[in-house]
Specification:
Length: 138
């Protein structure tokens, strides 16, 4: 019988401002240590992906949003998207005011607003997730 692959589930959040910025964190751990990424992380046991997205956003950036304000933009589950193994992420989008304060916390070395027209190198497939979010904004 073939071995079954273990799948880990995560949630990522694309937080955008009307002024054209996206919230990113600098990863403080491998893989992609020191590289910028979307706020996000693992789902806790029996936790809904949308709830995990709001929780991870708050833990990593200090930005608190209502779970109902997160809009799912898609699921990314391509094999090889994470060097640690098979990961499936539920990606959400939220729009917040331009002057929303943030503070790096939890596993993030840094958190900052980046202009969408001047993004740094991004970890994983987060550029694809941001592009998908932008295709859904008015």
């Amino acid at each position: 019988m073939p071995e079954t692959e273990s799948i880990r589930y995560t949630a990522d959040v694309v937080a955008l401002t009307p002024g054209g910025n996206v919230l990113l964190i600098e990863r403080g751990w491998p893989p992609f240590e020191g590289v910028w990424a979307l706020p996000g992380g693992h789902l806790d046991e029996a936790e809904a992906p949308q709830v995990a997205g709001a929780r991870e956003l708050a833990e990593e950036t200090g930005l608190h949003v209502n779970v109902g304000d997160l809009h799912r933009i898609g699921v990314w589950d391509q094999p090889g998207r994470d060097p640690r193994g098979r990961y499936t992420t539920f990606a959400y989008m939220v729009i917040v005011p331009d002057d929303t304060p943030i503070t790096a916390g939890d596993d993030a070395r840094n958190a900052r607003w980046w202009p969408l027209n001047a993004l740094p190198e991004l970890a994983f497939d987060h550029a694809d997730i941001i592009n998908a979010a932008l295709s859904r904004t008015p």
